[in-house]
Each structure stands twice: as structure tokens, then as C-alpha cells.
Amino acid sequence: MKAREKLDQLKAKLGPAIRRADIPSDHCLFVFVEASALKAVCEYVFRDLDARFITSIGADDRSFSGSFLVAHNFAFDRDHLLCSILTEIPASQPCVESISTVVPAANWAERELRDLVGIELSGHPYPKRLVLPDGWPDGVHPLRKDIPWNFVPDDYDDEREFKFDEPPEGCTVVPFGPFHPTLDEPAHFRLYVEGERVRGCEYRGFMVHRGIEKLAESVLGYNDIPIMAERICGICGCVHNVTYAQAVEAAAALQAPPRAEYLRSILLELERLHSHLLWVGLACHIVGFDTLFMQAFRIREPVMWIAEKITGNRKTYGLCVIGGVRRDLTPALEDELRQVLARLETEWQAVTAAVLQDRNIQKRTRGVGVADRNLVKEAGLIGPVARAAGVGIDCRRDHPYAAYDRVDFDVITAPDGDVWSRLVVRAREVFESIKIIRQCLDKMESGPIQLEIKDELPVGRLGISSVEAPRGECHHFVITGENNRPRRWRVRAPTYQNLQGVPAMIKDQQLADMTISLGSIDPCFSCTDRLETIDLRSGAVKVWSPEELLKLARARGIAAESSAKESDES
Amino acid sequence: MSLTSKFKEAMVGLKAGRVTLDYPAHPRPVPENFRGRPIFDAQKCIGCAACANNCPAREILVLDVCQEVRILKYLGRRCTYCGRCSDVCPEKAITMSHEFETATNKISDVHQRLDLFMSTCQRCGRCFKETSPLEQLKLKGYRFDDLENERWIFRSRSFLESEPLVDDIKIELD
Ligand code: SF4
Ligand code: SF4
Fold first, then answer.
1. Residues A261 and A330 both lie in one domain
2. Distance spanning both ends of chain B, measured CA to CA
3. Which residue, A241, A524, B42, B145, has most beta carbons within 10 Å?
């Protein structure tokens, strides 16, 4: 009855602003509010009712309701309730008041919906372009329904430069990224450094934005998307696959059979095991402790192999379709899984016994990259980063899905909020995952693994789902649509929120701690905007300027393209 | 104490011994369930195009040359070995093989082409009974994918024209 309770609270406080509400289940609440009151409602929910901000969603709903939709999603973790505050915005004037001044965590999500859906934000504190590439023309918003999926703008301006902010006085700029040897995805941090201390930074990312939401909304079908969704992340792909399936199931009021739910939990935990082992390894690698890096990867490998045996692939499990899972677990595989877990448990005990006492690692990670409770709330940090700051949030317990309501486990927390705490939390969570998988194996009943779906899915329904990924909460929002595909699908991966906490975490730290601080949330970065080439014959060194380099790269790119075309034709 | 933990850490490593596999000289066999490159069986295939419609990567093209002949072409460029095609195939004509080392510098090495003889039914004869409405055909009837440029054409027709749809294809490709 929590959903109703919250709605009553909202009504009591902001009655006239609330247009209508929908309570599809006890754990889910959709409230439609007046656009003019959106900020006030969000402030009340975020500050007074102490909800956690999840994400903001923009949708082009013009061809159906004649308006745009903006939703701000919040979670009441203690009340096991997910809540979406929605508002309709007239197509003639797509503009809404920004909530980022009262909910700082919404900063990126709001800019994203401005870039992609074209809803202006009045009063946004930092309205810089976020997602679209620098040369993309203004006023063209790819997620609008009148833009085709394969749209290429004529007036794409290759020459347009990104305008960096001015660094504060007395600071030197040190570029960190887009490529950095220790991490594996591009993200650019422009660090403002005073001596050895980082005083601030500007983030520039979204270099690998692939437009997967657009593809899903215009080309793929309901059951194609799970396979694509698991390619959003190279490590926690199964999470996206499950979250998407659950969001659609929630929207269409479908219920996966119990055995399928257990299988989902088992594979999600297997994924957490391999992800945490990988992270502990990488964290050790970043601080220069390669022995443990090697050992963590060795211990992780049997987890990959058993996943391969169960699902047919070591990483992209292809687990879910809407209404169930694709492959069952045989008794022989169950036994083997138990053996793998038993070995993993003993080996991980040996490793944690050693590492958690290791003073060298502690010296390198204690007091580094600190995110305190306040930052967790303001930036909306989640997962091990929040739990390491003493904030015990975990979707598996707070918003149970799949079979998590039928198993016992502890939510591991640590008090200090530094990199060390994150290491401790992740290392201990491995044991909880083992515990969960064992319980699932014990309790799992036989039965079907796929729900029989007889009718097409209803149109225009909303569905939300949160899944605890290894890095924190993964959240999907779906509006079901025509032509056997969703009308809108929004994905919020955990790093989206955690990355926004990084500038505060690295402030006033040693420059050398940057890598492990950033690494500790588990994302990615270095590129010096220049490149040296050495002419081997003359030994002459030429230093390329960014402009020259850009030109060269573009000329090469074009040459490569045309030669590819030629060879195609021949 | 740091020294004891260093000792313990060394033990973890020593106990494990050597684990690196002698790859590629002795590759580890893949499990029975493994999803490798899909292999199409022209003997079993009835040309229903369920696989093409449900391939998330759009890697299977369908071209109706005439009423009787339909060409099915598997491209294999960005196939993710997800196995959806083999899941939906009503005739079990697609096997997920154990091949995964398929890197090549000649992409046609991984192509598979099926020239299928289609029996005529009263209507177009090009349909399949989906397992659930979620697997329904997106494109019903005759299809005209562009085999040469290896592109899906997002359009199908309920009749075959005597003239090939060259111009249509051009429009789609622009
Ligand atoms: S395995 Fe997947 S990607 Fe490859 S052809 Fe089949 S459905 Fe398409
Ligand atoms: S689904 Fe099977 S029978 Fe139908 S076209 Fe594909 S391979 Fe042939």
C-alpha cells in the first residue's frame, strides 16, 4: 500500500498539480503532473520524501497524444517503490523547467533529453551539449519520430570545435583521455591541476554513443532487442537483457514462469561474480599489483566456462526473451555449477584473507576518491560506490525482481566511502552471490521456462524495471508501441550516475590517484591532443597539431572508405 | 601484517601452478551447447523467412527472383551467433555449429547462399506460423533485399512485378 500512501502524500501537498495517477502494482507508481508544477513536485519528492533520483526520460509522443513526454524517475528504496513523475508538454512549445538546480543528479539526464528529443530546459545550470557529436547541427534531434533511423544530416559540420570551459585561475590543464592505457573505453576528463592537486575537471564523453534506443524504436522488434541490449555493455550485458525483458513484461502485465525467474537470478549472479572478480583484478592492476590481477583472472575463468556451458557463450548469454528465458539448466550442469562455486569460494577465501590485510594496497587506496553520503544523495550514486559510503541500497533487496524475493543474502556495506571500501564491498559481495546461486539451485522448481504469449502486446503502456548490476542499479523505461516494437525505450546504465560523482571524488586529490579513483567506479579514458611521428630515415621529429591531425585522420578516413567501395565494386 | 599477507598472496599464485592453455596448438574443446556460426541446411529449409525476420543483426537477406525461386543469403559479417534464427526456424534447418574462429580477410568465405524452390500456394505462399505474435513476420509476401550491396530493403509486396524493382531499391539506398 506504499504506492497509494505516497500518492496521498503527494496529493495532500500538491493536490491541484496532479492530473492523474496509475498504480499498476504495489511497487510502482506513475503520476502525471502539470508541467508548471514539475519542478516543485520533484523537489518535494527528492528532498522532503527523500527519494533517490534514478533518471529522466524524454519521449516524442506527438503522433499519439499530440505532445512530448518528460518523466523523472525516483526510487523509494525503503518502501520498495519505483515512482515516475510524468508530464505532457505541448508540441508547439517543447520547453520545460529544469529540475537540476534542486535535483543535481538530473544534470546529465536532462541534457540528454534536450539533445536527443529536443525539449528545451529553462533554468538548467549547465546547458552544454552532452550526447550529440560536436559537428551535429543544432535543432536536429535524432530521437524525434520524424527523423529516420538512418538519418545523416547534410549540414554536419566537421570543422566545428568543441568549446572547453576556461580553467580556474592558476591551474594547468592536464587532459585525461579519451584513451588511457589503464581503462578500456573512451572518455575525456580535462583536469585542472594545481601542482600535483586536481582542483576540478570537465568531462566530455558519449564518444561511443551508438543510437541503440533509436534502432530499437524504429527497426528492431520486441524480441530482437534483448539480444541487442546485452551488447550495451561488454561486461554486464545480461543485466540489460533482463532489465529490458522485465520492463516490457511490467508494461504488458506478463509474468515469467518461476523457473525462468530462478534462471535469471542465477545468471545475473554468475555475471556479478565474473564482473567483481574482473574488477578486483583490474583495480590491483591499476595500483601496480599485477600478481593479484593474474590470480583474479585465473579464478574468474571457470565462471566464464560454466556460463558458456549453460548459455552457449561465455559472455553474451542471450538469456532472455520477453516472458522467459531461452535455455534451461540440466541436472548435470547444476552439479557442475555447484562444483565451480565450491572451488571459487575456497580460492576467493584465500585471496581475501591475504588482500584484506595487505597494507600496501590499503596505503594506496584508503582515503582516495572519497564519495560521502551527501554526494551519494546529490549525484544519485548507486551500487558498490553507494554501499561503500554506508548507504545500503541494493535493488535485489529493495526492488526485488526475478527470484530475489525467495533467497536470503546480506547487503554488504562499508563506512568510509573510499576506494578501499569499494574493494572490500566488492570482494565480500562475491560470497553473497555464491550464497544466492546455491539457494536458487536448491529452491528452483521444474516447470516451463517460457510464458506462452498469445496476443500482441498492448500499446501505449508504461513499464519500468530496475536491476542491480555489478556496478549499481540498471534502469530501463519502456513505452509499448505499434508494429511489434516499443515506442520508447530508455536505458540508464549504472555508470551514467556514478560518473557524475567523479569530479567531486577526485577534487583536491593527487593527480596520481585519478586512475584508481575513476577505476573504482568501474568505467574508463588519455589522449594528448597531439601525436609525434618519427621519420625513420631522417630521424626528424614532427609534432602534429590537433588541426593537422584531424585533417590527416579525415583524409585517411575518406581514402579508406572510397578504396573499400572500389574493391566492393570490382 | 603486510609481510604475512604478501606470503599468503604468493601461496595463492604458487598453488595454482601453470594454467595457461596451449592455444592455438591445443584449443580447448567448446561445450556441446555452444553457439557458434549458424549453418543453414538447404535440404530442410522451406524459405519461410522467419530467420530473416527475427535476426536482430539483419544478417539474412531474402530475394524473390520469381514465384518459384527465392534466394536466402546469410552474410555473416556482424552475426552475433545469438541463435535466434535457429530458435525460430520451424524446420530446424539452422544448426548453431561449434565454429567460432571465423576471422577472414575475404568476407565471402563466411557467406551462405540457399537457392530455394518455392511451392505455390493459393496466396503468396510466403508466410510462416509464428511461435508467438512477437515473432511475427515484419515483412510479409515477396521480398526484394539487395543482395549485391548486402542491404535489407524494408519493403515487401503482395505481388511480383515483371520488372525488377531496381528503382525502388535505389530509393531505399539513398
Ligand atoms: S545467429 Fe543471430 S545474428 Fe546470426 S544470423 Fe542467426 S539470428 Fe542473425
Ligand atoms: S526459418 Fe528455417 S525454414 Fe524458414 S527460411 Fe529460415 S532457415 Fe529456412
1. yes
2. 69
3. A241
Give me the interface pTM, i.e. the ipTM. Answer: 0.88
Is the same domain home to A40 and A126? yes
Minimal CA–CA distance to A188: which of A166, A203, A172? A203
Which ligand gives the minimal distance to the CA of B118?
A: 2
Q: Which of A37, A34, A126, A32 is nearest to A85 (CA)?
A: A32
Residue A491 main-chain phi, psi, to 5 deg: -115, 125
Q: How many structural domains are present in chain A?
A: 3
Q: Which residues of A touch B11 (CB under 8 A)?
A: 350, 354
Nearest-angstrom CA–CA distance, A347 and A431: 11
Those of residues 14-53 in B touching chain A at CB distance below 8 A are 15-16, 19, 30-35, 53
- Residues A410-457: pLDDT tens digits? 999 999 999 999 999 999 999 999 999 999 999 999 999 999 998 899
Looking at the fold, whether A445 and A555 belong to one and the same domain comes out as: no
Does the residue B9 lie in any domain? no
Atom of ligand 1 nearest to the CA of B74: 5
Supply the angle between the helices A258-286 and A237-252 in degrees, to the nearest 10.
Answer: 150
Residues A103 and A244 in one domain: no
A166 inside domain: no
Length in residues, chain A: 570
Domain that holds residue A310: 212-519
Residues A544 and A484 in one domain: no
Ligand 1 centre to CA of A427 (Å) is 37
Task: Mark whether A514 and A542 lie in a shared domain.
Answer: no
SS3 A499: helix
- Are B93 and B45 in contact by the 8 Å Cβ rule? The answer is yes
Q: What total of structural domains would you count in chain B? A: 1
